[in-house]
Every structure is written in structure tokens, then in C-alpha cells.
Amino acid sequence: MRERAWATRAAAILLLLVVAGCGQNAGTGSSAPPADSAAGAAPRPAARSAAPATTNVRARSTPVALDVPAIDVHTTGLVDLGLTPSGALDVPQDAATAGWFALSPVPGEVGPAVLAAHVDYKRVPGVFARLREMKVGDTAEVTRSDGATARFTAYRVERFSKSAFPTAEVYGNTDGPELRLVTCGGEFDEVSRHYRDNVVVFARLT
């Protein structure tokens, strides 16, 4: 069963993700604080079929686009993210790209699908420059390569210190399909060149 498969995989992942949701370096690489706005959104795509909540789609489908209307995000070309040698979540290589943690469920499967992007990078506003502005009730739509769209509704928006990141809450098993949007936030540490916190949006399939 998908629930049991993810529970087994999640247990192994939790042993590796020992620091923070998007790692010590996610959203960094810029000496500037978070930007106040992101680039304007492209036109939203036409309606597509809803994503099945219990079907195993991993073998034939991956997330390819993300729309978050409340913060003017429309991004395509999502990349696969893995783990760094230290066991933290890897990050995209530029400000304009978002990534899917490829060890997490495909959006629409049972468990928490994880998407991460920079808040800014080399003084360029990142995809998640305004993630901290999301509110409970805001929606996010993930388009998959099989043509289906998984629509999620935020039920929690939090900022966590990287030194006390709740790995199990973010990556742990869930009863149904969920989504996590992760970036950096809080104060920028001029010494370490990293942000001190992570912003995480928790959402459920609707």
C-alpha cells in the first residue's frame, strides 16, 4: 500500500535530514535580505484533470510546474532535489528555479510532497521570495508530467529556526496527500552568509 511504502521511506529519510527543511544553505547565496516581491506571474494554465489521491504515479510522473496565486508564483521546469553530503535537502542552483525533493512523494500521493526554492539568490528575488506572506486557506497547484494537477490548500504557515527545525513535522508520514513549500527566512547572518530560519507552508490535497 502507498501509505505503508511512504512510512518506510520516511523513516529512512528522517535519519538523514538532521538539520533543516531546505538545509543550511537553502535560499542563501545572497548578501541581501529577502526581497519584498517576486517576478510577475505568467498566465495561469488551462484547467486539467484532478490528481488521483491514492494512485501510485511515481513510475510515470513527476511535478513539472507550480502555481501559487496568492504570492504571484508560476514556475515551470521544476528540478529534482536530493540530499547534500551532510544529509540536508539540496537546493536549486539559481533564483528562478524551484525543485522537488525526489525522495518525497509525488504531489497527489499519500505523504508530504516537498518543494523548495530560494527566497533570493545573488541579489535576485527567488521563486519563494514572498512565501512568508502565504496565509491559511491560500492554494497551490502542482502540475505533473502525466497532465494531472494536484491542488492543495494551506492549513499552516510557520517560521522555524534552522537550529531547531522540526524535521519529523515537515517530512514525517501523513494520513493523506500533503504538500510542503520550503524556503529560508528570518534574519540574514552576515558571518555565516545564511538565513537563520526556514519558512514552511503546510498544505493538504483539496
From TrEMBL:
Pfam families reported in the protein's UniProt record: Sortase
Q: How far does the signal peptide extend, from start to end residue?
A: 1-26
For bias type Low complexity, the affected ranges are: 27-55
Instruction: Report the domain of life of the source organism.
Output: Bacteria
Identify the stretch(es) annotated as Disordered.
Answer: 27-59
InterPro entries in alphabetical order = Sortase, Sortase_dom-sf, Sortase_F
**Protein keywords:** Hydrolase, Signal
> What's the name of the protein?
Class F sortase
Q: What organism, scientifically named, is this protein from?
A: Pseudonocardia charpentierae
The organism that produces this protein has a lineage beginning with:
Bacteria, Bacillati, Actinomycetota, Actinomycetes, Pseudonocardiales
